[in-house]
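Structure tokens please, single chain.
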Amino acid sequence: NGGPLSDIHFDYNAATIQPQDNSVLKSNADWLTAHANTHVQIEGHCDDRGSEEYNIALGARRAQAAKDYLTTLGISGDRMSTISYGKELPLCTEETEDCWAQNRRDHFAVSQ
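Here you go.
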């Protein structure tokens, strides 16, 4: 995904961390712990179904879910920010379930 941290993905209409992403978030937390001078912006993304307003809110809940989870793993909240892009920045633009699944994600952008 172009960075040291891996994306996590969500079920349709959901902002719940999925069990298979626990290890991804643990790896992300380990990297953040080892790189204590970095900050991360957690970007919530959605597929293109639903209204823009709905998807902005859903993306915000997805980003917050990851932030909350990383906090429980010991990452300080002041090192993390959240933003929702809703459906504005899709990775994939085909109208297929595979494509939609790729777009329902949190992306972790690292900065100094």
